[in-house]
Prior knowledge:
This protein is mainly alpha-helical. It has a domain at about 40-150. Helix content is about 50%, strand content about 10%. The protein has a two-stranded antiparallel ribbon with strand order 1-2. Strand 1 and strand 2 (about 170-180) form a beta hairpin. Helix 1 packs antiparallel against helix 4 (about 110-150). The two termini are about 60 Å apart. The model has no long low-confidence stretch (mean pLDDT about 85). It comes from Winogradskyella damuponensis. Pfam families: DUF5683. This is DUF5683 domain-containing protein. InterPro entries: DUF5683.
Amino acid sequence: MFSVLYSFSQKEKDSTSIALDQSPIIANKTLVKKEIDPLRPSKAAFYSTILPGLGQAYNKRYWKIPIVWGAIGAGVYFYVRNDKQFDRYRDAYKSRLAGFKDDEFYGLISDDGLIRAQEQFRRNKEMSLLITFGLYALNIIDANVDAHLLQFNVDENLSLSPHYQYNEMENTSDLGLTLNFKF
């Protein structure tokens, strides 16, 4: 003994329905489009040329400024240190050539040793200078590239995202990629 009960309601809304606003939902009003400034990368590079780290400040990458100053400062430090050592050994060698025997290395290092030390510190000084100029150029390149990447479009209208979906018809799961491109 089975009974089937059908009921119909004449009401348009019942107590469980949620009233929605009749105006359409437009998602584009919430998106803020930034204009691309084609001179921004060149400004950042120019500022970094004037003062290392200033281009990073212009790009609002403040955490990079101590790295830039530390790298260039280390290069300058090693250049100055190697220059002082070179001068010490050169002055000692010059005093030995003049016939003096009162330099700080007398009895410890031979004349050939002084020449080799001068060559080593000259090479180290030149390498320090090249590395410092390379780090200075790297600072300029970083500011320029970072300014270019800040203008790269990464909003939600252009996205590639993985998705997982359960397929009820086949009782399996589906994996895939979704590409969203909205105008």
